[in-house]
Amino acid sequence: MSTTPDTNPWIGGVHTEVAADTAEDVRRAVDAAGAASGQWAATKSAMRRQIFLRAARPMADRTDDIVRIMAGEVGATAPWAAFNARLGADILLEAAAAVSQSAGQVLATDADGVISTQARVPKVVIAAISPWNAPLVLGARAIALPLALGDTVVMKPSEDAPVACGLLIADVLREAGVPAGVLNAVTNDRADAAEVVSALVADERVHMVDFTGSIEVGRAIAVHAARHLKPARLELGGENTLLVLQDADLDYAVDAAVLGSFVNSGQIRMCLGRVIVHRLLAEEFTAKPAARAAGLNRGDPTDPAVAVGPVVNSRAAQRIAALVEDAVAKGATLAAGTGRPEGPDTLIRPVVLTGVTERHPLRADRRSHHRRSGAV
């Protein structure tokens, strides 16, 4: 079996090796999911509920492992990784509760003495493709509800977090009693990602695709799924704005701006893209988050005192640096940070910019390809 390195963004070395699966491995995973689908769909709902209840506690109990894994895979700080562990466990509990919530409908009919009903049944095989930035949360969310309601799943975690986003979740559920073939994880080398995703989406036995990730990849998956006439659930992020009005509590607003901008090094779509401040408060307000940003501890994500760790890889760091440099060249002012990588080539000091032009990619709306995805 060929493998591919799972790289540590902080030290630059290999965190672990995972299988470098190909389109043929995708076919075998779908074979397994299809073969297991009938028995899993027929499994009593109470039994499926018990499996998810059994999985939730071990997920929470593995918080220390999850902190270590997420630091090694994506440079996540301890608080962010611990949050993933807690919410990942909660998602499994929510799936257990949802087992008994799948409802049908009584439909209108004009035939005397006839009752028409609509019942929900499993879709059989679901493809779940999840991102690296909240790997445990989004990986668990993609597979938990389909499995709980009787579907089988082929999951393809991000190349940047194959363990936290996929393999760890699969291990926890198998240990809790999910039968062989019901949940299948496919990992791959980055160079093979397009081939693997294409094979998964195109397989006629896959009835639905669930994808969370970038706009560019989401658009390609939507086109590919449409070509094969299958539904795709796409979550492609959002852009968030903080408004600071004239009567605002400035200290509270500063706390919100700093947390909203720099949690997980600014690499989640819930992060703030911009802060709009009333002109009478602009000078006073701007100085405060700039000072706070400059004082945030940054560095080794395994250090509990660190608030800002590395970004996910050197490509992300280079993209952020280029965006900041371009913004300054077009008239923006640096109030904190430089935008340039320091230490390892993935660590960027938190950046505060003022006066970014309206059409600059750092202020682009949610439809733009130019996502900052960093502590800016």
Automatic annotation (TrEMBL):
Source domain of life: Bacteria
Record bears the keyword Calcium: no
Pfam family, one: Aldedh
Keywords: NAD, Oxidoreductase
Similarity section: Belongs to the aldehyde dehydrogenase family.
Protein's recorded name: Acyl-CoA reductase-like NAD-dependent aldehyde dehydrogenase
Gene Ontology molecular function terms on file: oxidoreductase activity, acting on the aldehyde or oxo group of donors, NAD or NADP as acceptor
